[in-house]
Amino acid sequence: MIERRDVYQAIADPTRRMIIQKLSGGPLNISQIVENSGITRQGIAKHLKVLNECGMIALTQKGREQVCEARLEQLDEVVDWVNASRKLWNQRFKKLDKFLAETKKQ
C-alpha cells in the first residue's frame, strides 16, 4: 500500500517546519538548508523527500545543485482547518458560558 502524504505530515515534524521556515525567505540549495541546522545532509534529504511528497516544496536541478522552493499555498489547508476549529470551539465555549451563567442563577 502506498502512503498518501499531506500537509499535516509535513508540518508535524520540527525539522520539516524549520526547513519550511528557511525556504519561506526564498529558494535555497540543499547545502544552504543544511548550514547551521545541526543535521546531516542525508538527514535533511530525507525530510526534503517527505516535504516534496506532501507538495510543500518543489525541487529543481540547477547545474550540480538541487534547489528547493517552498510551496506555501499548501498551508492554506491548515489555516482553513484552524479557523473552522476556532469558530467551532468559540461557539461551544459561548454555550458553556451561557449554561454556567444560568446554573449560577438557580
From TrEMBL:
GO molecular function: DNA-binding transcription factor activity
InterPro entries: ArsR-like_HTH, HTH_ArsR_DNA-bd_dom, WH-like_DNA-bd_sf, WH_DNA-bd_sf
Residue ranges constituting the HTH arsR-type domain according to the UniProt record: 1-90
Listed SUPFAM superfamilies: Winged helix' DNA-binding domain (SSF46785)
PANTHER family: SLL0088 PROTEIN (PTHR38600:SF2), TRANSCRIPTIONAL REGULATORY PROTEIN (PTHR38600)
Record-linked NCBIfam families: HTH_metalloreg
Protein name: Transcriptional regulator
Organism: Niabella ginsenosidivorans
